[in-house]
Design goal:
The chain is an all-alpha fold and 182 residues long. 65% of the residues lie in helices and 2% in strands. It is built from nine helices and two strands.
Length: 182
């Protein structure tokens, strides 16, 4: 059974730009998450089902449309929390310091990218990680979720899984069409 930290690492990889092997990784991740949190696994499986017939190029297009061309759904959590305010710059500096402290490698993205922040939260001791998730991750993920239409975008299901893992909204069940119900 995976712990929450390991599960955050697993789900972070699902938010990567789709590449060869993504589908196989998705199936493996769904199985891993199922051993940690059944509700989150249900959302991940709904995502897997929704993208099952798509080609890699269709997945790339969906990713770009969802996260790159829609600023309200970008994966930079600092932007969702602070906008272009000076406070975001301070947040980026602190994140970079924490990344060094916990051995999280720099990426091409800014340090506030969900792709970096989830592995950082996974490496923090729980007494630091819990308030970090509550103060920064949950509110940003909820803003991203609101910008991704649940009825038409499969990534809404992956975001719902992440919200469940973070202890936020998204704790309902998923029906055949991938809609969430309390």
């Amino acid at each position: 059974m995976l712990d929450l930290a390991s599960t955050l690492d697993v789900i972070a990889e699902l938010f990567e730009y789709p590449a060869a092997g993504y589908r196989e990784h998705l199936e493996s991740a769904a199985a891993s998450i199922a051993r940690t949190d059944a509700a989150a696994a249900e959302h991940v499986q709904a995502f897997a089902d929704a993208v099952r017939g798509r080609s890699l190029s269709e997945m790339e297009e969906l990713y770009i449309q969802t996260f790159d061309l829609n600023p309200d759904a970008c994966l930079d959590i600092g932007w969702h929390l602070f906008g272009e305010d000076y406070a975001r710059g301070e947040f980026l500096v602190k994140l970079r310091q924490e990344m060094r402290r916990y051995g999280v490698a720099e990426r091409e993205e800014l340090p506030d990218s969900l792709l970096t922040v989830l592995p950082l939260a996974a490496r923090m001791p729980e007494e630091e990680a819990a308030p970090f998730r509550a103060r920064f991750l949950r509110p940003a993920v909820e803003k991203i979720r609101k910008a991704v239409p649940a009825e038409s975008n499969p990534y809404s299901k992956l975001l719902a899984a992440l919200a469940v893992l973070l202890g936020g909204a998204g704790t309902g069940t998923v029906d055949q069409e991938g809609r969430e119900h309390e």
